[in-house]
Amino acid sequence: MIWKKEANLQDLNSQSQNGAAEHLGIEITTIGDEYLTATMPVDHRTKQPYGLLHGGASVLLAETVGSFSGTLAAPEGSVCVGLGINASHLRGVTSGIVTATAKPVHIGRKTQVWQIDIVNDLNKAVCSSRLTLAVIPVEDIVK
Fold it and tell me: Choosing a second label site near 115 at 20 to 30 A (CA), which of 36, 61, 73, 142?
């Protein structure tokens, strides 16, 4: 198991309250031994004007599940913040729920890299994203 911190779904989801993830309906749904999953509805909050899932919403979902994953895999007293993200949008989605799964590519002392794959209700690829995170001490977070 890669996680260095104890976590449960309720605690993770409560951390998203009053932020962008809550506004878009993102919910962490599974904590596996070496992956984390989250879901997001495809609705009026997450669609672009043509009725398709907005690419930015997919990126927000990817960064949310990736950042939570990174922080759980980081040592106590540290958190992870995004350094860079890329995304390839592979298939349009007009309704339903999309599911993102974050898996580690590299877990280092100062940086981490996560692969986040987003699929639709039929388990077909929607977006492939790569997230690079910085591992920093909690006290370095500006509040």
Answer: 142
What are residue 12's phi and psi, to 5 degrees? Answer: -60, -45
Beta bridge partners of 107: 112
| pLDDT tens-digit readout, 8-60 | 999 999 999 999 999 999 999 999 999 999 999 999 999 999 999 999 999 99
Domains delineated in the chain: 9-140 (3.10.129.10)
Identify whether 76 is a catalytic site residue: no
- The pLDDT score that the predictor gives to residue 1 is 84
**pTM for the structure as a whole:** 0.96
Beta-ladder partners of 111 = 134
Q: Which of 6, 22, 63, 76 is catalytic?
A: 63
> What are the contacts of 21-27 at 24+ separation with CB within 8 A?
21/60, 21/64, 24/57, 24/60, 24/61, 26/60, 26/61, 26/64, 26/65
In order of 44, 77, 138, the CA distances from 69 in angstroms are 27, 15, 16
Distances (CA, A) of 117 to 17, 44, 62, 102, 131: 24, 22, 8, 7, 11
